[in-house]
Fold this sequence. Notes:
It is built from 6 helices and 3 strands; from the N terminus they run ααααβββαα.
Amino acid sequence: MNCEHFKRAYKKFDGATNVIHWRDTDTPEYHAYSDHMQDCHPCRDWFQTEQLTEWKVDPNMYPCIHMAFHANLQCGNHEDPRDCPSILVIYLEHYDEYGIPSRDGGESYWKIDHCPWCGRSLPESKREQWMRKLRALGFDPVKDIDRVPEIYKTSRWYRDGGNPNLRLV
Ligand SMILES: [Zn+2]
Ligand SMILES: [Zn+2]
Ligand SMILES: [Zn+2]
């Protein structure tokens, strides 16, 4: 399969026009398609960019296309991404931290500092800052995790500069 064929096959297997969301993966064409994605990095990046557009994700919010793709990849079969063998990298938005799940049945993961695909430096973790902010607001970041203001469960607390007026609810 060449790159042109790959892009045509994408429309059939994964593209927006694939409204049926069903695909026969046990065909020579599908195997050639997934082999091409493994071997051809420009096509893999093209695939991820196409998917991000479909998911309405702005890749500029992430260090690179690969991290954007993996941070937003969802599986219909596994609610928790840590349980899904297809999800290689998890993104902890509230810490701005990327990691590889350790698959030990718990929540642990190996933090990564560079993209495994392109080597781009990832942002420095904001975990310590997050802890300090919550303590300053009167929360115990471990015990009060369910009660912390919603913005501290997302990236909004550092992207929007946070809201200093938020108090215990
Ligand atoms: Zn290609
Ligand atoms: Zn899954
Ligand atoms: Zn990358």
